[in-house]
Write a structure and sequence with these properties.
By secondary structure, this protein is mainly alpha-helical. The protein has 19 helices and 8 strands. The chain has a two-stranded antiparallel sheet. A two-stranded antiparallel sheet has the order 3-4. The protein has a two-stranded antiparallel ribbon with strand order 5-6. The longest helix is centred in the first third of the chain and has 32 residues.
Length: 601
């Protein structure tokens, strides 16, 4: 069997599994956040935390809860790392240095999982499990909660301004979604030989007779949530290229499915909760179009044989595992940069100029194809709001999104959301390349205009694109252990995560305060709607309020000839065009100075 055929079969398997899981998992997540019933273990959490699970929050209360929880998480994780040397199960590892602990705490709390260290050398198993693995769960749950809050703002028909209860959404996301899925994936990985041990390592003798030490630990459990939660931070410096974490082609495919699973199925959740599944299919189509295009570009350019080494190998095999090859490496790389995961099974720095540039571009698009857990959905929904505003004005139709008017306040929040990431990426990159002291940390450098200097610029651009988008992967040629990179990348991760979340929640609050006008069935007139019911029953704070009158007539996303439809191929094409236009106008000069220039030399 040829490499191409094997790659196509793997791709087909990934797509089929995602298609099979799409409806049941998407609808399950809709029930999780729409149900008014609390599980026994959830009620225990609420009692311990003195949380009123029936109390709804406005966007301000929701945002403060997100920021407060994340602040406490940061402090706990920072102290855990600093005190690592005096805690049990440290395996002789000292406390983490202040700069590195600061960077790592921000990284895992923000779901970035950027690692400026070798995990098996720096972190103990206790820190990995109690600190980093816990954040893998809760940071992913925060992203899910924010996405659901935005959906509640869209479908709120009462004008109450309430978007749910963050604490309820956080607990449900962990207990009902992330934990069960991670358990299933971990069991599958164990069958493939992924290591799961509470030992810290073992000694052995090599074939040459020399003694050596191998690190082991709870790898399977952390590998599972690393992918399911689109986190990406591994327990080994080789990440998912290490045979202890990803030993076989089947385990590789399982991990790819795991990192795509929730972001893809969330489009079904969205369509179910808004009462019009065409909306979810349109978003899924836009995501799939971008993902397939980027996969094709990377696959094609990495399959070429430019240069003596690549011609001898038959493809661009530098930095890639023989057991995966080009197709599985390209599929993993495109999926991980498109989902804010950051896990890698190959060295992105070793990709061709065009292939590596495509991976950078995948992040600079805002990671909406399909994006991180929760973050991908609310990112593309913000872009959909901008598309409605621009497209509606171009064709002379009212800018409304599912019955909610997109006015000055709403578009301001959406615009601020879009501006945060480019500002962080471009400012961080430009300052870093100007600073003379940073040149020594670049694996590639040289006189301006030389291939080395161009690739060195690409390494820096990749680093800040990864940090500001909360991705976490890197061009490995850049050493980021200096105080400048530890601090600046930490700030980029922090602001790149929480400023957009605040703007998304503010947008959700603005939409939730509106009482939309919808067209009556068979009449063609409009009327203000009122009254609500809960999806899933119970009427708890986790429920998504849908308007009973709208459902009884034309549905929450009723077609209205006076507004731009937000479903179908036309809107999907407009959405993809808007995403590409925003990214192109913003980042083309930077890409031209780096990957594009390197590719044409």
């Amino acid at each position: 069997m040829s490499v191409t055929v094997a790659g196509l079969l793997q791709l087909a398997f990934v797509i089929v599994v995602l298609a099979v899981c799409y409806v049941p998992l998407g609808d399950h997540m809709a029930r999780v956040y729409g149900s008014g019933r609390d599980l026994v273990i959830e009620r225990w959490f609420y009692r311990v935390g003195r949380i009123d699970s029936r109390r709804q929050q406005t966007w301000v209360g929701y945002a403060l809860a997100v920021l407060g929880f994340s602040t406490v998480s940061f402090v706990f994780l920072y102290l855990l790392q600093r005190l690592q040397g005096v805690l049990p199960w440290s395996d002789g590892k000292p406390g983490v240095a202040p700069g590195m602990a600061f960077n790592t705490a921000i990284s895992f709390v923000t779901n970035t999982n950027w690692q400026s260290y070798s995990p098996e050398v720096v972190m103990s198993n206790l820190t990995q499990m109690l600190g980093l693995a816990v954040q893998n769960f809760v940071s992913a749950a925060v992203g899910l909660a924010v996405a659901i809050a935005l959906i509640r703002g869209i479908v709120n028909r009462r004008g109450s301004g309430e978007i749910g209860n963050f604490w309820v959404d956080l607990v449900r996301g962990v207990v009902r979604i992330l934990l069960p899925l991670s358990f299933i994936v971990a069991l599958i990985l164990l069958t493939q030989g992924v290591v799961q041990s509470f030992r810290s390592g073992f000694d052995f003798t090599t074939l040459t007779g020399q003694g050596a030490h191998s690190v082991v630990g709870p790898f399977a459990s952390q590998e599972a949530i690393k992918e399911i939660g689109t986190n990406g931070g591994g327990v080994l410096s080789a990440n998912s290229a290490h045979p202890f974490s990803n030993p076989t082609p089947l385990s590789n495919v399982v991990e790819i499915i795991a990192l795509l699973l929730i972001p893809v199925c969330l489009t079904r959740t969205y369509g179910t909760l808004v009462g019009d599944r065409r909306q979810g299919f349109t978003l899924l189509g836009a995501m799939a179009a971008i993902w397939a295009t980027m996969l094709t570009i990377v696959w094609v350019f990495e399959s070429r044989s430019d240069g003596i080494a690549s011609r001898a190998a038959g493809a661009m095999m530098e930095g890639k595992e023989q057991r995966f090859g080009i197709p599985a490496s390209a599929l993993f790389a495109v999926s991980t940069t498109g989902t804010s995961t950051g896990a890698v099974n190959s060295a992105h720095d070793s990709y061709s100029a065009a292939g590596g540039g495509a991976l950078i571009w995948n992040m600079l698009l805002g990671e909406v194809a399909p994006g991180g857990v929760g973050a991908g959905l609310y990112s593309i929904l913000v872009m959909a709001v901008i598309t409605v505003f621009v497209g509606g004005l171009l064709v002379g139709r009212s800018p409304e999104f599912l019955g909610k008017k997109v006015g000055q306040s709403e578009i301001t929040m959406a615009a601020l959301y879009v501006l945060v990431m480019p500002a962080l990426v471009l400012a961080g990159t430009s300052i870093s390349v100007i600073l003379f002291s940073t040149r020594g940390f670049q694996g590639n450098s040289g006189d301006p205009g030389t291939p080395g200097s161009i690739h060195g610029f690409g390494e820096v651009l990749y680093a800040y694109a990864s940090a500001a988008n909360n991705n976490g992967s890197a061009f490995g040629g850049l050493t980021v252990t200096s105080d400048w990179f530890q601090t600046s990348l930490g700030i980029a991760m922090l602001l790149g995560r929480f400023l957009p979340i605040v703007f998304v929640l503010a947008l959700a609050g603005l939409l939730a305060r509106q009482r939309p006008r919808v067209r009556e069935a068979g009449v063609g007139s409009t009327a203000v709607v009122g009254g609500s019911r809960s999806v899933g029953g119970g009427g708890g704070s986790g429920s998504v309020a849908l308007d009973a009158r709208v459902e009884a007539t034309t549905g929450p996303a009723a077609d209205d000839p006076s507004t731009l439809p937000t479903h179908g191929m036309m809107f999907g094409a407009l959405l993809v065009g808007t995403i590409l236009l925003v990214a192109g106008l913003t980042f083309f000069p930077a890409m031209a100075l780096g990957p594009i220039a390197e590719a044409v030399l």
